[in-house]
Amino acid sequence: MTSKLEQLDTALRAALGERIVDLQASVGELTLDVAPAHYRDACLVLRDAAELHFEQLIDLCGVDYAQYGNAVRDEAGRFMVVVHLLSLQHNWRLRVRVRCADDDLPLAASINDIWNSANWFEREAFDLYGIIFEGHPDLRRILTDYGFIGHPFRKDFPLSGTVEMRYDPDSKRVIYQPVTIEPREITPRVIRETGYGGLGH
């Protein structure tokens, strides 16, 4: 008798064929890697094929592999889109990954019209990582301010900025100004109480 994971592996290989770049089982889950050129049609097969029927997109996120594991990354591309799918009919879960070929302008096809739950997830990946989803109907920032510059989840994003934003009651609007936090050294203060916990009698 084959396990559910083996059944899913067989069904994926039969349905997707050469679209599969890599398919690995680890920690009781399958991870499917597809090439950017086959990402959209692979997703359509995953949703529509009766033997797969992944009708629900649970999560979509970006990943930055710069300096991954404190080692120099491979040449396959720095950014990746990771999708988690669920088949309620078959009780299967699947992780789908696609690399963005160009590090300077990371692109991936939008799958918003395949699973509409991808809409805000793709906007979040665009906002935080700068991944552009081609064909997305409303690709704009969702978590940072409209005037924000950069993508804060990129590993090369600076840890401290030079500009802060605040509401100014006098002008009745949000203003930008230089950062006002003074650098300081924090020294822990230790208070020792005599007889604390029944010790030191």
Gyration radius, in Å: 24 Å
Number of domains: 1
What is the average per-residue confidence, as pLDDT, rounded to a whole number? 88
Number of helices: 3
Which helices and strands appear, and what pairs or packs with what?
Elements: H1 4-16, E1 20-26, E2 29-34, H2 39-48, E3 56-64, E4 79-87, E5 92-99, E6 107-109, H3 118-129, E7 132-134, E8 163-168, E9 173-178
Parallel strand pairs: 2-5, 6-7
Antiparallel strand pairs: 1-2, 3-4, 4-5, 8-9
Tell me about this structure.
The structure is a single chain. The protein has helices at residues 4-16, 39-48, 118-129, and strands at residues 20-26, 29-34, 56-64, 79-87, 92-99, 107-109, 132-134, 163-168, 173-178. The mean pLDDT is 88. Helix 3 links the parallel strand 6 and strand 7. The protein has a single domain (4-160), classed as NADH:ubiquinone oxidoreductase Nqo5 subunit (Beta Polymerase, domain 2), CATH 3.30.460. It has three helices and nine strands. The strands form three sheets. A five-stranded mixed sheet has the order 1-2-5-4-3. Strands 6-7 form a two-stranded parallel ribbon. The protein is an alpha/beta fold and 201 residues long.
State the gist of this model.
This protein has helices at 4-16, 39-48, 118-129; strands at residues 20-26, 29-34, 56-64, 79-87, 92-99, 107-109, 132-134, 163-168, 173-178. The protein is of the alpha/beta class and 201 residues long. It has one domain: NADH:ubiquinone oxidoreductase Nqo5 subunit (Beta Polymerase, domain 2), CATH 3.30.460.
Features:
alpha/beta, Beta Polymerase, domain 2, five-stranded mixed sheet, 3 helices, 28% strand
